[in-house]
Design goal:
The complex is a heterodimer of chains A (285) and B (274).
Chain A (H helix, E strand, L loop, with lengths): L2 H31 L14 H7 L2 H33 L5 H13 L2 H12 L4 H8 L19 H26 L2 H8 L4 H30 L2 H6 L7 H9 L7 H31 L1
Helix pairs in contact in A: 1-12, 2-12, 3-7, 3-9, 4-7, 5-7, 7-9, 8-9, 9-12, 11-12
Chain B lengths: L6 H19 L2 H8 L1 E2 L10 E2 L2 H7 L5 H32 L5 H13 L2 H15 L5 H25 L4 H8 L4 H29 L3 H7 L6 H10 L3 H26 L4 H4 L5
The chains are: A mainly alpha (285), B mainly alpha (274).
Amino acid sequence: MSDRLKIILLLLPAMSVIVLLFFGGLLIGLMRSFNYMPVIGLTEPNLQAYVNVFTNEEFYWSFLLSFHISFTSTLISCVLAVGAALLLRRAFIGRAVINFLFQLNLTVPHLVGAIGILYLFSQSGVFARLAAEVDLIQRPADFPAMVFDPFAIGIILQYVWKEVPFIGVIVLANMQALGENYESVARSLGASKWQTFRHVLLPLIFPGILSASVIVFAFTFGAYEIPALLGANYPAALPVLAYRSYTDVDLAARPEAMALAIIIAILSAVMIFIYIRYSRKRVRS
Amino acid sequence: MIGHDGLWTKTFRYITCLLLVTWLVLPLIPLGIWSVARGWFFPDLLPRMWTLDAWRYALSDTSGVLDALWLTIGISLAATVLSILVGVPAGRALGMYKFKGKEVIELMILAPTIVPGIAVVLGVHTVFIYLGLTNTVHGVILVHLIPTLPYMTLVMAGIFSNYDPAFEAQARSLGASPLKTFWYVTLPAIMPGIIVGGLFAFLVSWSQYILTLLVGGGRVVTLPLLLFNFATSGRNDITGAIGMIYILPGILILTLTAKQLSGRSGAVGGFGRI
């Protein structure tokens, strides 16, 4: 059997799944967003759904909110994860414990974390009760709104809780594969601790951080259940907005939901493209 | 080791370490307490009464929690096995061969990790309606392949890029059949990757919410759906109990496979390849 045929046969099952389910789903979504679906007699495509989406003020607020959630969560998670990985790579007591907790956290679904954050940070949650205990507040309403709030603090807290271990495990694996020889050389040549980190370690672990943070950014931009549980009613995150239009009793809203889905896909692809190009340039320079 | 650490550095390290541990377990604590609490109202720091009622309800036959647990395990296992069957060959092709258009194929296989599920599932739902796959367990398993397959393929591609096919050739030249070669030579060599990739696939499927909700149409009730419903209806005690049941399999799998997942294992490093 030739290599060419082998490769085709090896890839065939995976490519069928991806092309039929994933790209098929996107294509049908695209067609329906143009209100074009010959099977059910819709033969005249139009742009009405997109006009409706782009003339709706909530869409812009939702986009800003979703972008803020992804950007802030990814940035905080990356910084904390690199810090945690630096902490963890030196041998000391407690390292095994954190290492285990990191991995434990990886197995806990986002939804459970979101409920935990809800019970911790809501206005009658654990922290509000602690504040009442030390007489900082009298009533639940005195506690600052950290869930269902317009700044999505609860959502970001949940993502940071989940994603620090995710990025941390990947960065730690990179650091351990590299060893400390490069840094020792830089230090012996007179580089400061910060210079060693910035010009030796960071560029070396950067590919790992980049790929992990891309996954985190994309996930936090498109996840539904966390903003659905912890988010304010208005503006809702983009995925919540899309789900609401899709399940609207008015079936005429379905093309709009499809248009939103396509816009979410394009937006996340474009943002990730820009992010990868920009950050590669920054770190290499 | 670079230099010696001063007292301050050490103290700083212990404090950050302690903070990190606290932060990592913190959100799980109120869930655990709620599951054994009765009437835990503001401003009580701890419940006034402790009870196992929520657990009794969750574990009873009428609540449907155990049915949801078995269903979720079944769906995630099926999605994992399918991802292994489909992802291992694809990982072999991507890890061992150089060919024209490889970058495009890689990008296509990785695309589902970047494009949000909600963007794809609305279209998939429309197709599944015509195929009669909506509101069925089969449909849910199929749609779970979208997020699980990329992880599986990625991990396997990492494993196969460090794999020497000469061992297979030697086994064949000594008279082993292709099946025997696969069973005794290839499989043991790639097993760590299958375990890590399978674990990822299982956990990714295990935590799916929106794909199950839309394709299952509310008829395929997995644990996350049940959990979400209880969480939004304000039954904190039952939510706590279901939450604990929901994270249990993950913890079990972790303790069984902790070695493969540790930072030193090469399979996790596969993520650096994207």
